[in-house]
Amino acid sequence: MKTINQPNKGDYSDFFSTYLNLVAGENFEVLILDQIKLIHELFLSKDRKWAETAYDEGKWTPKEVLGHIIDTERIMTFRALCFARGEQSELPGFDQDPYVFNAKFGSVSLVDLLEDFKVQRMAMLSMLKTLPEDSLDTMGKASGNPITPRALFWIIPGHFMHHFTILQTNY
């Protein structure tokens, strides 16, 4: 698998800098695969009650956090595909809270959520193998902001690290 270089400033809005800073200097493919192991190890080291208990009122449960990560990765991957293929239309934003609420992740087995995460990651890596290198820098617009497929792909592991750290420290 070819690894992809990190995006340049200007390839994304400042909002995503927090996520991208969490994965600066990493190898993309190694990072993506290591994160599959990290999330499995974390969830499997805890009891079932942990995965289904929010750390505070109004916060998501760990299973809901994992579901949110999966949904976000699907959306970011879809956006990357659209822009890599030359989509000129602006893609809409999404409100994460209704996605989590309507998904009812609490009723999905942890085994199924963990497998879904792994399959999503593997599908993304498979898709990346087929994308021409120059397509990764095609500028698109999502949520009112310019962004490239390269940036979208790198936001994925950064977003994961953001939530993984919260799972480790707050739950």
Automatic annotation (TrEMBL):
Residues 52-164 form the DinB-like domain. InterPro entries: DinB-like (IPR024775), DinB/YfiT-like (IPR034660). It comes from the Bacteria. This is DinB superfamily protein.
